[in-house]
Amino acid sequence: MLVHNRAGKWAVWGLFLVLFLPLFALPLLVILAASFAGHWSGALPSGFTTAHYTAATRGDSLQALTTSLVTAVTASLLALAVGTWGALGAHALPRPLRRVLDALFVLPVAVPSVVVGLAVLVAFSQPPVLLNGTRWIVILAHTVLVTAFAYQSVSAAVLRLDPAYEQAAASLGARPAYVLWRIRLPLLLPSLTAAAGLCFTLSMGELSATMMLYPPDWTPLPVQIYAATDRGRLFTGSALAVVLMTATLLVLFAVARIRTRAAYR
Amino acid sequence: MTGIRFDRVSVAYGGTTVLDALDLTVEPGEVMALLGPSGSGKTTALRAVAGFVRPASGRVYVGERDVTGLAPHQRGIGMVVQQYALFPHMRVADNVAFGLRARKVPRREIPARVAEALEMTGMGEYGRRYPRELSGGQQQRVAIARALAVRPGVLLLDEPLSALDARLRSGMLAELARLHRELPDVTILYVTHDQVEALTLADRIAVMDRARLQDVGTPRELYRAPRTGFTASFVGNANLLPVTVGAKGVAFGGVELEVDTRGAAKGAAATLCVRPHVVGLGPGPNRLAGVVGEIQWRGATHRLYVDVAGHRVMADVRELRRPPAPGDAVEVHFAPEDAVLLEAGVSGG
């Protein structure tokens, strides 16, 4: 802490709580409360029940959770592969070309995701590549959306990588592929896992593009939440939202553990 | 046995020439120091051998092989850089084994060769450690072991001691000299800006300045009889006095000095090079009268700056019991055989 006297510390903590609670914590707490509520007509919910969770962890809802997890994991891994490849490739390019590539990769973020969804829908609704109606169109759209983040964080890390390591490796007789596999990728591992976590989180929460694309047998959890609340079942929607949050956080924790191990090696 | 040969090697970065037509041969088994200030092109020359800079013109040979167009990993050299560049995610033993694995040395030979290389640099006990768990000097030893493990014919050292403190540096200097005695076949190209390292370690020194090779010779030749003013001032910080060649010596500030003129034309302008440590205080041969401008106590010696006829003459004398004060009139002298006559127009660098 930069504030050293006791009163100052309390004041800063107070200010932090006043700002943090209403902005960040309260909405989440409200959802948590609603997910256990039977009724909510007064200031506080009443009629504590776990029935919403029973509903949220079986049948269609459980299916939606698996769908979301499979989509997010596949999309993040694809995005990581493409983004890392792109970032490493871009690094070897002359500066003007690298700028062009940077811009290309950022494009899906700069464009509203609804537009990306529409673009993917239009592009893959007819041969030669007909993906509409399959799960792959959802995964593809998610990959397109999150690759930008993978590219950006890996590309920043590649730029920071000291060329002395790869030069030392090359002078010891290592071919470029061997240097990439044994030196550059391991040194990039912390950034790669950070990028993977980011991509996963973004994909887990993606709704707008997914809405335009999802086939009946591939309904991710955010769509399920939207459908529940749309039909007025707010408490069920809240329970689903808590499940979504928990699943995302669990995976992020797992990734963070790999990260600390990678940083310690 | 492999030597190194630079054949008119030039390197340019975006229009600036950083190495200008370098012609230099390093004999097999020789330690050649590339000595010069920063920006003199010495590191560029080393990187041209390693393959990290591409010459604009000229060829680089390692042994009989023209390596100019080869990628770094095809050149079969060992290299140690200033920051060591040990792989932080690998243990010391894996760092040393890296080159062996990359070159597909049979798996069962690797442990013995790693142990041998670590033993050679006194790091045998540290194989299980990670680089960040080692001190600077230990990391340096591991970097050298890693470069030597692949048994290169040529070892490139790029300012290998400059990240160490003074005490460690002299220890490592002795260590490098010992390593070279144990591996007499390895040709070493040693880049440094430190004349003590170059004088101590090198069989020959190539002095570089402003992208050009200024002088090549054994340390003794360069120190005793520098061919250029830059060498004289960079190696050993010599006094450079403008003189006129006379009948049996030279004239400086109206005083006749007895020195070997080596057939220089009478009446010609020249530069007299005299090392500070051969200049004595008091009367003697070749005496010069002047006024003390400044005096520095350096422990074992006193460094005097004496103004003689408008020029500042440096003298390093054994610590004086009663040192003169600035402004005192003094006499300094030097033996005729301790001075070297250089061409005119060179000045202290």
From TrEMBL, chain A:
Ranges for domain ABC transmembrane type-1: 65-255
UniProt keyword list: Cell inner membrane, Cell membrane, Membrane, Transmembrane, Transmembrane helix, Transport
Record membrane topology: Multi-pass membrane protein
Pfam families referenced in this protein's UniProt entry, alphabetically: BPD_transp_1
InterPro entries: MetI-like, MetI-like_sf
Keyword field contains Lyase: no
Localisation: Cell inner membrane; Cell membrane
Main location: membrane
Sequence intervals crossing the membrane: 12-37, 69-88, 100-124, 136-159, 187-214, 234-256
PANTHER family the UniProt entry points to: INNER MEMBRANE ABC TRANSPORTER PERMEASE PROTEIN YDCV (PTHR43357)
Family: Belongs to the binding-protein-dependent transport system permease family.
Protein name listed in UniProt: ABC transporter permease subunit
Automatic annotation (TrEMBL), chain B:
Gene3D superfamilies per the UniProt record, alphabetical: 2.40.50.100, P-loop containing nucleotide triphosphate hydrolases (3.40.50.300)
Domain (ABC transporter): residue spans on this chain: 4-235
UniProt entry tagged with the keyword ATP-binding: yes
Annotated PROSITE patterns: ABC_TRANSPORTER_1, ABC_TRANSPORTER_2
Molecular function terms from GO: ATP binding
Swiss-Prot/TrEMBL keywords: ATP-binding, Nucleotide-binding, Transport
Top-rank taxon: Bacteria
Protein name, per record: ATP-binding cassette domain-containing protein
Source species: Streptomyces glomeratus
